[in-house]
Predict the structure.
Amino acid sequence: MISCDYNRLGYTCPEIPVEKSNKCMFHDEMYIHNSKNRKIVQNRFYRKFNNMIDSKKNPLECVGYILQDVKLVGNIPIDVNFIDITFKGESDFKKSVFEGRVDFEECVFEEKMHFESHTFVGDVNFKKSTFKGIAYFWNSTFGEEVNFEECVFKKEAYFWNSTFGGLSYFKRCVFKGVNFSGSTFVKKGEFSQSVFEEEVNFSQIIFEKEVNFERSKFKGDTDFKGTDFQRIVSFHRVTFDEEREILFDGNLSKISFLNTTIPNKVKFGPNTKWNDDYKIFDEWVIDSTEEEYYDYKNKLFLGDILLEYNNLRENYEYHFKYQEAGKFFIRSSEMLRQYEERGKVKLETSKFRITLKKFLSKIKRRNEKNLDNDGETILKKKWRKRNLNFSRIYKLIGDYGESYLKPLGIVGGVFVVGWAYFTIICDWNLIICSDDPISYGVKRALAATTPYLSFDGTIEPLDYIIKATTLPFVGISFIALKRRFERKYRH
Ligand SMILES: [Zn+2]
């Protein structure tokens, strides 16, 4: 007897071909077009499906079928391979229970598909499937690995209030609009190189492990409000549409925007949490000794992190948050003071030197110690280089021109000391003074600490020394105030 000639990667179909065709009713594309045949196909499929469950042959395999209005009900105790199936009409799986692995690879769902409030016990695979209607997965529990890699969602996809217990792959997906709000990802979430064409809701999500959005494109309004990223979250080389509202408002202490432009429309809400002193993750990680970050930090470059700070600073300034913007500026200046990049030339010479030393003196321990550092691209400068320089002084006395209170405080301190000194020398009659000691002290100290103010009386070199030392501090506080006013009137 001739059987259906459908063949895919070793799968052969045992069914008898329909009239005027080489393929059976499940594989012939034309057969299902006739509405009478639709019912026949449906009934045959359900009968076959139940027989397969009864035979307990694992896995249950249907490959390349073309089915209409599929509605599965009841327990399916074995693994299911539904590969390359075209589901015409609405497909409804919400009243079925898949107890094993579920494989829907390369399927096409032509209308709505229902999987809401579902508990998937085993792995779930929808790799390379196309959802032409709305995909309902809300309130679901995925017990194991979930694979939606390279899926195309042509309408909305609803995954809200779901729990993803295993690794979740949504790599290279194309989403029309998607809602994951209120979900929990227990293991890694992979969303890299995906395209989000329209509105995206990632709010109130808990990502317990790392999340990757690398090279993704957000083309619609995007909401990350209240989302808790507990491990590294990579937004490397991400594209945000400049005209769309993108909102972050949660724990961002482990987020990285490396090589990503942050447009003005991106907004960091009032509940945004950075590390202390607005230190971003990419700076924080350099000093981390945790092994899990080792590979990550070895790929970092100083310039990229500085640019990241600059982008955040500009975004905060755009939203009138000058104080926070100033903190990002201080951090980037601090990075420049404390770290240096291991240059390529330097690496080669140091390696050459190590080899030479090894060859000549065989001081092994020291060489090994040097080699340990080889992986790191950003190194902490030596103490002397970090602390004995102008930047260090500028940080101490004025937070790189961001603080006017620090330098003014120093001038105030000098004034108080000067006042006490001048009062005492007057009071103890060490000098001739006409006023009472306190007002004499005030006058002379005020004149000494204030530029352009002079004191008519005895002036000693000390007064000039005070004037000369306080002048720069007054200047620095002036710079900080000027910066603040300029920012205020820029927009
Ligand atoms: Zn067939």
Summary: Residues 4, 6, 13, 15, 23-24, 26-27 surround zinc ion (CB under 6 Å). Residues 313 and 448 are 38 Å apart (CA to CA). The chain is about 35% helix and 20% strand.
